[in-house]
Write a structure and sequence with these properties.
- This is Pumilio homolog 3-like.
- Keywords: Repeat, RNA-binding.
- The longest helix has 28 residues, at about 635-660.
- It contains 43 helices and 4 strands.
- Among the domains are: about 1-40; about 455-650 and about 730-745.
């Protein structure tokens, strides 16, 4: 194949990344052409012709007969004598040493400057030692800076020279910094130094330790070159430091404007601080501005320069205003590389935008990229927002549970030690609760509510998350119950967290644990829960939520509190908060609770009446007792309570058997024998719903309960022995009335 025929083909074939087939083919064809050309040359020479180019024959003269190469070849033959000669290693070492010295001398500016550089290095060794005093270090800085005079630009390009210059800038005074900076104080030199591997560190040190004029000179030198410098893998480090830490708001705006097109490179405008301002002021230029911004960002991201404050800020704005197709292109390139930048404010917003605008598969890829770092993501300053956004938009709650919720619940102890981690834990349980989250945080999260890829209703997603973390939440509550009951930061959370438990069994376990804690007898030096304001408020909240628990057919905290803590409830009547707690119990409107409170306070009315003159809570309590004296238990309450007690029976069977062996357990209520193989159940108020089909004993119990609810104080208790007692029943430990026990006997 001739060269002319080869040129007619495609000159730039599309290369395959997976193989070098095209390269091999190209070399092979070129080798064939070279062989044809040599063969033609020999043929022409034999015929006495010099070919088309009229080339002259080139021959070696006699001086080239003794030519030998390094391998010992002489005129195509191997020279064994040369090969067997022993090398002079000392001479080779000396030659290497001399070449190295000459190279160093050449790098620092010549032989004379090399001696000066060596002297400066010796002084610098003493200067950088930790034992050097402050005064001595300053003197050495001044002496070394004099040696730097005139050669700053050359020396800071050397590894040792830049280290000396950094120490001079750090520990020297204003005169030393001025002496060094004045030699490179020009736009051309600053831009050249900014692109050098070693000398760019000198500009970073001047930004950190220099005065205002020196910083302004460095930032001003970048004007018109910001996009080009940001693309440079070395210069971008200086741009990042200048933009993020030392540039003013106006300077940041001018640096950002250069990405919006050539017009803004040469003509800066004061009113434009971000992309939104440009699109608002020039709506007809949106397409051109977005195209220029995309071009700049794409070139920068292809070089891997992603962890840059300026670039992240621009990318966040680009994702906010670009079209959906362009968003998908950006998300595809970022979906597995967001972990290094989510600790940054703009980086976390970019990750949230990717979650909101990404497909279900892309969302999973983003979350999977956080694997093995989920705890760190949940405790960093800005990255926790990404997890909150994931809980709001990911419809696949099974994947969310395995990838996010399970790792966090396993580390719940460590998570709660962090303030940021506590926010994530509370958001898992309570969602967008304004009590625990600032409105600004919630407003940011609301931006993703209208994303096109989330189809599931928010309430359903929230319930599924609660179902997944329910058991872990219960374990955490039981483990920290004593501390949370008395800590003001956690009492606000404890009540809603218990109410948010998804199932009746979990709620009953948590409610009973809290009720038993309320029943504990505290030593004199420890305040009871009613003596602590925030703890008393938490108990009031729990009682108030029983109205909704009744509607949802969930266990009632009020009943468990009356069952376990009745003795402490009587003691708490001596304080105002205790009276208000009883008022809350009466305000629930649950007949069973109201009747139990009336029976509990029956023998203490005189005490409450005396306190009503001085205590507002006692006064209101007396009024509530009068208003609710005719309240009785309804059939629905009795039926629901039977179901609750049946569930409670299974849990407390073992404890009750031990109590029966000791002879310390008394039967409360009536033990009714039912036909068939059914177990013994409690009678009294719980069995009133089957009045038409029950036996005479059950009907008598129902009449006793109704008469106790309808009669006044005098008819309900004729002497002190008729006081309501809360005893453990063999079946459930329910509240029983002493009148019922005496009648059955």
């Amino acid at each position: 194949m001739t060269l002319e025929n080869k040129s007619s083909e495609n000159k730039f074939p599309k290369l395959d990344r997976a193989s070098n087939e095209h390269i091999k083919k190209f070399k092979k064809s070129k080798g064939a052409e070279y062989g044809d050309a040599v063969h033609k040359r020999k043929t022409d020479d034999a015929d006495g012709k010099f070919g088309q180019g009229h080339l002259k024959k080139q021959r070696f003269d006699d001086s080239g007969k003794n030519f030998k190469n390094k391998a010992g070849f002489k005129h195509g033959k191997f020279d064994h004598q040369k090969r067997l000669e022993k090398p002079d290693w000392n001479k080779m070492r000396q030659d290497t040493k001399e070449r190295k010295k000459k190279r160093k001398q050449r790098n620092v500016g010549g032989e004379e400057l090399y001696d000066t550089f060596t002297k400066a290095v010796k002084l610098w060794e003493e200067l950088r030692h930790s034992n050097c005093s402050k005064a001595r270090r300053l003197d050495l800085c001044r002496e070394v800076s004099q040696l730097f005079s005139g050669v700053v630009k050359v020396w800071i390009k050397q590894a040792s020279g830049i280290r000396m210059a950094e120490h001079l800038v750090t520990y020297g005074d204003e005169k030393v910094r001025k002496l060094l900076f004045d030699e490179i104080n020009s736009k051309v030199q600053i831009l050249e130094i900014m692109k050098d591997t070693h000398s760019q560190h000198f500009l970073q040190k001047m930004l950190r330790h220099g005065n205002k004029e020196q910083r302004q000179a460095i930032i001003a030198a970048t004007e018109g070159q910001v996009v080009k410098l940001t693309k440079h893998t070395i210069a971008c480090q200086v741009i990042e430091l200048a933009y993020s830490e030392f540039a003013s708001a106006a300077q940041r705006a001018t640096m950002m404007q250069e990405f919006f097109g050539p017009h803004f490179v040469y003509f800066k405008e004061e009113g434009i601080k971000c992309l939104a301002d440009v699109l608002k002021k020039y709506p007809n230029k949106k397409e051109a501005v977005m195209k220029d911004l995309q071009k700049g960002l794409q070139a920068i991201m292809q070089k891997g320069i992603f962890n840059n404050t300026l670039i992240l800020s621009l990318l966040r704005e680009y994702l906010t205003f670009c079209e959906q197709q362009e968003k998908q292109t950006v998300i595809e390139s970022l979906e597995d590389g967001l972990l290094p930048v989510i600790h940054n404010r703009d980086g976390s917003r970019i990750a949230m935008l990717c979650l909101w605008n990404g497909s279900a598969k892309q969302r999973k890829t983003i979350i999977k990229s956080f694997k093995d770092h989920m705890f760190e993501v949940a405790t960093w300053d800005h990255s926790f927002m990404v997890l909150l956004a994931a809980m709001d938009c990911i419809d696949d709650t099974k994947f969310l549970g395995k990838a996010v919720l399970d790792p966090l619940m396993k580390e719940s102890g460590k998570l709660l030690e962090s303030e940021i981690g506590t926010r994530v834990f509370r958001y898992m349980i309570l969602g967008r609760n304004t009590t625990y989250f600032h409105p600004d945080v919630l407003n940011v999260l609301k931006q993703g509510d209208c994303n096109p890829y989330s189809k599931k209703d928010a309430s359903i997603r929230r319930q599924e998350i609660l179902t997944h973390v329910g058991k872990g939440l219960l374990e955490t509550i039981l483990r920290n119950l004593e501390y949370w009951c008395r800590n003001p930061q956690w009492t606000l959370f404890l009540g809603p967290a218990m109410y948010a438990l998804p199932s009746a069994d979990l709620k009953r376990t948590a409610y009973e644990a809290l009720a038993k804690h309320c029943a504990e007898k505290m030593p004199p030096e420890v305040n009871s829960l009613m003596d602590i304001a925030h703890s008393a408020k938490m108990l009031n909240y729990m009682i108030a939520k029983d109205v909704e628990n009744k509607k949802n057919k969930m266990p009632l905290f009020s009943l468990l509190l009356l069952k376990h803590a009745h003795e402490n409830l009587v003691k708490w009547l001596s304080c105002n908060r205790g009276c208000f707690l009883c008022v809350r119990l009466l305000e629930t409107g649950v007949g069973r609770v109201v009747v139990a409170v009336h029976d509990l306070l029956h023998n203490h009315r005189s005490k409450i009446a005396k306190m009503s003159d001085t205590t507002k809570g006692a006064e209101i309590l007396m009024q509530k007792l009068e208003q609710t004296k005719d309240v009785v238990e309804s059939e629905d309450e009795l039926e629901e309570n039977d179901e609750m007690i049946d569930g409670d029976n299974d849990k407390t069977n073992n404890d009750e058997e031990e109590d029966n062996e000791d002879g310390d357990v008394e039967m409360a209520g009536d033990n009714v024998e039912q036909s068939g193989d059914e177990d013994n159940e409690e009678s009294g108020s719980e069995d009133a719903e089957e009045s038409g089909e029950e036996n005479d004993e059950e009907a008598a119990d129902e009449n006793d309960v109704e008469s106790c609810g309808e009669d006044d104080e005098e008819s309900c208790g004729e002497d002190e022995e008729e006081e309501i007692t809360f005893k453990k029943s063999a079946g459930s430990g329910k509240v029983s009335d002493s009148d019922d026990d005496s009648d059955d006997e």
